[in-house]
């Protein structure tokens, strides 16, 4: 009788650990509740790491597509940019954040999962030499995946990065 109780308890614990969206052992692509940060918090984090940002409109209004906004950015996305900066040693300039005008979807810019980085030889070499090529996206952009599961898409003049997590921060 005692063995049956132990097995039942173990089954309950394992079920909770692996339950989609609930367990602590979820995959990188499971949508999780994300901690959102403000534009001011993100810029403070980026400034402290030596990451720059720019916008074609010279603004940060989330509702203006010519701005670069970090309002409602996921904390893990900001940390992921910091991890990329420290791991690569490259200069990073963010050219797209959570502002309107990007493609929609669960793991979108608007929902705080993506950042665009200006194209630079250092970043391109780092991505192509350290991450795994995983093929082209539906729009034809070639993609690489980091060991942490984040996806880097080469959109020609910039890198479109989906941060499912902080990249090992």
Strand content: 15-25%
H/E topology pattern: HEHEEHEEHEEEE
Instruction: Name the quaternary structure.
Output: single chain
Tell me how many strands there are: 9
Count of DSSP H/I helices: 4
What low-confidence regions span 5 or more consecutive residues with pLDDT below 50? Answer: 3-30
Which outline best applies?
Answer: globular
Structural class: alpha+beta
Provide structural commentary.
A hairpin with a 5-residue loop joins strand 6 and strand 7 (142-145). The chain has four helices and nine strands. The protein is globular, with a radius of gyration of 18 Å. Helices cover 31% and strands 20% of the residues.
Question: Which tags fit this structure?
Answer:
two-stranded antiparallel sheet; alpha+beta; 169 residues; 31% helix; 4 helices; seven-stranded mixed sheet; 9 strands
């Amino acid at each position: 009788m005692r063995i049956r109780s132990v097995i039942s308890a173990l089954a309950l614990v394992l079920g909770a650990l692996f339950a989609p969206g609930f367990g602590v052992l979820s995959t990188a692509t499971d949508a999780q509740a994300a901690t959102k940060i403000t534009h001011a918090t993100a810029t403070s984090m980026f400034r402290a790491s030596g990451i720059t940002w720019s916008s074609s409109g010279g603004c940060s209004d989330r509702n203006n597509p010519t701005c670069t906004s970090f309002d409602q950015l996921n904390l893990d996305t900001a940390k992921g940019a910091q991890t990329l900066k420290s791991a690569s040693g490259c200069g990073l300039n963010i050219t797209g954040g959570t502002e309107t005008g990007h493609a929609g979807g669960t793991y979108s810019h608007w929902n705080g999962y993506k950042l665009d980085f200006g194209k630079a030889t250092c970043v391109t070499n780092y991505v192509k030499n350290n991450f795994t090529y995983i093929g082209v996206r539906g729009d034809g952009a070639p993609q690489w995946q980091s060991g942490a599961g984040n996806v880097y898409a080469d959109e020609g003049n910039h890198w479109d990065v989906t941060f499912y997590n902080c990249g090992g921060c």
